[in-house]
């Protein structure tokens, strides 16, 4: 591996991606995909679990389901923005609703993907999210 490729690979490891979904199979497959592209991934079964974790302050990007019990992904995005955390969001949903998508995108979401989504689309969204001001939330 050349020095520049190795450096790029190490840089990707510095990005911590939080994957939040109440469906364990989605968490597992999304985490595997993200890790296979060289990123660090952490999974959470709920927005509340993510908010209570030590990973919150070190998250570079959030990949979240829209519909989850108690706190939705959209509500999580709004909560983080209200707290001053400017972290890129990628939303996943099995229920694509125009109003929900518009609200998420207006609040700064990078992508809004419909389940089932393909791996290259998610990785393209992740690359965009981390290239457009990605990094540890403020």
Fold and architecture overview:
The chain is α/β, with parallel strands linked by helices and 138 residues long. The protein has one domain: 3-Layer(aba) Sandwich (Rossmann fold), CATH 3.40.50.2300. 44% of the residues lie in helices and 17% in strands. It is built from six helices and five strands. It has a five-stranded parallel β-sheet with strand order 2-1-3-4-5, with helices on both faces. α5 links the parallel β4 and β5. The protein starts with a helix and ends in a 7-residue tail after the last helix. The C terminus is likely disordered.
Mind sketching the topology for me?
Blueprint: H1 3-13, E1 16-20, H2 24-36, E2 40-44, H3 47-51, E3 61-65, H4 73-82, E4 89-93, H5 98-106, E5 111-114, H6 119-131
Parallel strand pairs: 1-2, 1-3, 3-4, 4-5
Mean pLDDT: 89
- Strand order within the widest sheet? 2-1-3-4-5
Strand content: 15-25%
- The residue ranges in which pLDDT falls below 50 over 5 or more consecutive positions are 132-138
- Major beta-sheet overview: 5 strands, parallel
CATH architecture: 3-Layer(aba) Sandwich
Assign an overall shape.
globular
CATH class: Alpha Beta
Q: Please identify the structural class as seen in this structure.
A: alpha/beta
How many helical stretches? 6
Q: How many beta-strand runs?
A: 5
The CA-CA distance between the termini, in Å, is: 34 Å
Q: State the helicity in percent bands.
A: 40-55%
Task: Write a compact overview of the structure shown.
This protein is α/β, with parallel strands linked by helices. The chain contains 6 helices and 5 strands.
């Amino acid at each position: 591996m050349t020095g520049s490729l190795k450096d790029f690979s190490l840089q990707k490891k510095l990005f911590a991606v939080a994957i939040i979904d109440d469906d364990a199979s989605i968490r597992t497959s999304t985490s595997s995909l993200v890790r296979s592209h060289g990123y660090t991934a952490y999974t959470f079964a709920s927005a509340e679990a993510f908010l209570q974790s030590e990973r919150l302050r070190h998250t570079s990007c959030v990949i979240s389901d829209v519909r989850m019990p108690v706190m939705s992904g959209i509500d999580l995005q709004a909560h983080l923005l209200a707290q001053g955390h400017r972290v890129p969001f990628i939303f996943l949903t099995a229920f694509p609703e125009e109003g929900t998508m518009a609200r998420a995108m207006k609040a700064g979401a990078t992508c809004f993907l419909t389940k089932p989504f393909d791996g290259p689309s998610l990785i393209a969204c992740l690359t965009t999210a981390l290239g457009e001001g990605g990094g540890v939330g403020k």
